[in-house]
Amino acid sequence: MALVPYVATAEMGLQRFHKPLATFSFANHTIQIRQDWKQLGVAAVVWDAAVVLATYLEMGTVELRGCSAVELGAGTGLVGIVAALLGAHVTITDRKVALEFLKSNVQANLPPHIQPKAVVKELTWGQNLGSFSPGEFDLILGADIIYLEETFADLLQTLEHLCSNHSMVLLACRIRYERDYNFLAMLERQFTVSKVHYDSEKDVHIYKAQRRCLREDL
């Protein structure tokens, strides 16, 4: 979702973001993700959190076959593409300005027989939620979407709308600022949250969240 300026340091290896293609191997497929830093900034490059989350999905910890999933703030679409290749029915979302770019990556990387399992759809957090049924998805995915404090309330509202009591949320993020912990604290008021994976090389955490049952809060 992040079509905003992003402060990055030289050691982050910004040169890789300026490459027109980023190539990965997931689910026995070679995936070539088109990047466009100059036009769309942070929404159009592959961040480490997306790679780590895609790798985690490939581990098979979560059953994806037949699963109804949604990716929030998809950017390049890598996570949603991998989820579809692994058998999920995926709705891959971002803001309107990024949709054509996102759609091009999805179409370029999914074989024709899998493409019907992946839908690219507009979603601005906290706004057009009416186009999604409450509790519609089994699995909600997000990679590096926790960093803008002004979006936290809208993101939480969106998660609450999309989740049923049986849904699972997987959020991959690098904790960069104290405010990132603030979002996790907000999330814990409505969800049971646990850390399920940590990639020490990329310094990326994956958190699992599930909506609290009413009796847990009593």
UniProtKB/TrEMBL annotation:
It comes from the Eukaryota. Its main location: cytoplasm. Coiled coil: none annotated. SUPFAM superfamilies: S-adenosyl-L-methionine-dependent methyltransferases. GO terms for cellular component: cytosol; protein-containing complex. GO terms for biological process: methylation. It catalyses: L-lysyl-[protein] + 3 S-adenosyl-L-methionine = N(6),N(6),N(6)-trimethyl-L-lysyl-[protein] + 3 S-adenosyl-L-homocysteine + 3 H(+). Keywords: Cytoplasm, Methyltransferase, S-adenosyl-L-methionine, Transferase. It is found in: Cytoplasm. One of its GO terms (molecular function) is methyltransferase activity. Protein-lysine methyltransferase that selectively trimethylates residues in heat shock protein 70 (HSP70) family members. Contributes to the in vivo trimethylation of Lys residues in HSPA1 and HSPA8. In vitro methylates 'Lys-561' in HSPA1, 'Lys-564' in HSPA2, 'Lys-585' in HSPA5, 'Lys-563' in HSPA6 and 'Lys-561' in HSPA8. Belongs to the methyltransferase superfamily. METTL21 family. This is Protein N-lysine methyltransferase METTL21A. It comes from Muntiacus reevesi (Reeves' muntjac).
